[in-house]
Amino acid sequence: MESGVSGFAFYPFQVSEKYPAQFIKADITYSSLSAKLKFNFKLSENPEYVALVQRLQEYFDKIKGSATTNNWHVSRKVKPHQTSEDSFKNLVQESVAAIEAGQIEKVVLSRVRATDLVAGFDLMDTYLRLQEVYSNAFVSLISIPETGTWMGASPEILVQVSKERIFKTVALAGTQALTADCNPAKASWQQKEIEEQSLVKRYILNCFKRIHLRDYTETGPRTVVAGNLMHLRTDFSVDMKKEEFPKLGTQLLELLHPTSAVCGMPKETATQFILEKEGYDRAYFSGFLGPVHIDGESNIYVNLRCSQILEQVALTYAGAGITAESEPEKEWLETRMKMDTIRQVFRNEAS
Ligand SMILES: C=C(O[C@H]1C=CC=C(C(=O)O)[C@@H]1O)C(=O)O
């Protein structure tokens, strides 16, 4: 993040040959607010660029307001997979037993669900609808050869470094449905959710401790709305101008990922547990993504509430934090609600 190179980071849960870390260099950026292209190289350096730029601007002018294209990249590495209800619930039970036996403190278990794309499915149209429905989320659509196409509406910032050099991260956990008659400001939370979120907070504070970061601001926890759901969130910020941490963004990105909101505690044991037991590859789900050094700031989000789009099927992913108090049925329903964040937009209806 300190190299000054502008681009878009797309990082998996675990880096491997199959799922490499990706960085799309921002040679050209397009802002829908200004409807303008921005070039991160000197146009006069190469006459070919001048012609290319002219063609691109003409292309953007032409397609503006008529977003229809279904040419997306499909990863050949994935086999469509679906976690069965029984296997997920059994794994919740096994995790609770491992927690009670003191092998782990918390683990985030996830599952995958396959949905057939409806006839006439339009990728760009779906993406624009997702943007409309989740105005408070980080709505993304990424399409990379070999890696495939991912779409999501993440509620969780992992690392933000603003123009003013303010660093931010959050401890987000605990989930309940946002119903029509409920007021988020008056939401009450069970002991289970309070503890689950405080474990994420403790995990972040441990990362701060490891680099001897003492001067930070902590706000919360408070109830926040994320689409059809509510969570508990504590906000942390650091003024990087005051602190002796010029590389804080990168340092904490390395330490935080994967946080206890998507993996567990202790981190290494929880990671092994997930890799051995979940029964499928998370790939880029619960990794991180976002713009780096665009207009002087970086905003990296956790890749949650997302789907991988294949030729005729979308694979939707969701996880739930398991603690000693977890009940299989409740965790199953919680992952279903999380999946609905994006699935309802695919089908353009609530499920
Ligand atoms: C792992 C996910 O959510 C995390 C973020 C907020 C609340 C969570 C929870 O209540 O379990 C999860 O830690 C997901 O959406 O797949």
Automatic annotation (TrEMBL):
The lineage of its organism: Bacteria, Pseudomonadati, Bacteroidota, Cytophagia, Cytophagales. Keywords: Isomerase. Its EC number is 5.4.4.2. Belongs to the isochorismate synthase family. The keyword Transcription regulation does not apply. It comes from Adhaeribacter swui. It catalyses: chorismate = isochorismate. This is isochorismate synthase. InterPro entries: ADC_synthase, Chorismate_C, IsoChor_synthase.
